[in-house]
Each structure stands twice: as C-alpha cells, then as structure tokens.
Amino acid sequence: MAAVTLYLIVGFTPPAYAMHIMEGFLPPGWAIFWWVVALPFFVLGLRSLTRITQANPELKLLLGLAGAFTFVLSALKMPSVTGSCSHPTGTGLGAVLFGPLTMSVLGGLVLLFQALLLAHGGLTTLGANAFSMAIAGPFAAYGVYHLIMRFSGEQRIAIFIAAALADLLTYIITSIQLALAFPAPVGGFIASFTKFAGIFAITQVPLAISEGLLTVLVWNWLQSYSPQELELLKLIKREPQTHEST
Q1: Mean pLDDT across the chain, nearest whole number?
Q2: Using an 8 Å Cβ cutoff, are 120 and 75 in contact?
Q3: For the chain, which terminus, N or C, has the lower number of CB atoms within 10 Å?
Q4: Separation between Cα atoms, residue 176 and residue 245, nearest integer Å
Q5: Are 94 and 138 in contact (CB under 8 A)?
Q6: What is the rounded CA–CA span in Å between residue 183 and residue 185?
C-alpha cells in the first residue's frame, strides 16, 4: 500500500503500507463508488472466461499461469521512499493472452486472495484496487499491444510496453483514487495527485521497466514450450515446414 503511505507522508491521513489501498482506508462513499464501477467488468469477464474455457479447455493451464504470474508479482512489496513500498502488477501478460475482460476476473480473484490471506489490500477497498490493477491496467496493456502490432509488428517490443504500461497506469489510477478521496487543503485534487504520483514514480518507473523485461522473458518461454496454446489464441503463427527434395 505504497499509495496509502504516501498520504501519510504528505500529512493528510493515518498510515497505510503499500500500493493496494488498505482495508477501511477509503471513505464509504468512494469505496462503494469503485465497487459499482468495477462489478460490471467482473461480470463481463466471467462470461469471457467461460467462453474461453468451454471453447478451448486446453487453455486452462495457461489461464492458471497468467493468474499465478499476477499473484506472485503483485504480492512483492518493494521498499520505496520514506518507509512506503511499491510493487509490480503482472497483469500485462494475461491481458495480452486473454484480453482485458478475462484479466478483470483473474486480477480480481488475485486481489481477493491477497486481502484474505496476506492482509494486502482489503474487502471494502477491493473495488478500487480491482479497477486500478485488474481493469485499467489490463485495458491499457491490451490496447497498446494491438496498436503496436498493427503498425510495426514488433511483438517483443509490444509485450514489453504493454506490461510496463499496465504497471504504470495502475499506480496512476491509484494516485487519482486517493487524490479524489483526500484532496489537499491547498490545491485540492491536483496538488494531492501530484504528490502521490511524484513520490510513487521514484520506484514505480524502474519497476515498470523491470516488469516489462520479465514479461518478455516469460513470453519467450511460452513461445518455446507452449506454442500450441499461443496459436489457439492467434498470437503466433507456426511457420510451415519445408521439405527438401532429393
């Protein structure tokens, strides 16, 4: 809960500890608002997930891998400035593989388990955390991946930027959420957002770059060991084999 700790740093609120917004930290009105915003994406994501698993049951292992990748990366708390911490998100990979709606379910479940098992995040703030990490980030990753592929076809570059952008946008949305809930006495929303985002950027930008590189490594591994699944998802095309005549 790095974003929440930042609020302590700028002197507006009680302490919190990482980029997932902690339990009970948001005012009730804002907590309900983000739940209402996030729930439709989760419902649509369930329908998307059902279609994928029914049409291609063999993709269930890859779905599990995408969820596990998100769980592990987003549970890593990296020390930030003044006692706060940041973390990667891991949502870019799943967004590219299965689309942002499916990732809203996988990411939402990851956040739920982290809140219940690791005290990382919370139930009242689950809607806000899901919107930033499991919805906004994956939609950005999916969009930029297909945009780059359309105009350049450089897949590894597209994967790198998609993963890094999903990470960066998550922290930006979290900063917006906190600034909306706790505007600064002087300068209001803009001043509060600037302080949140500015301090977050010190660690989140390097983390986003690192996450992009790691996601490319995982993608290379998938291409080597799970090409059939990537072909089913129409993300790669197997080159036709040529036979030399004798």
Answers
A1: 86
A2: yes
A3: C
A4: 64
A5: yes
A6: 6
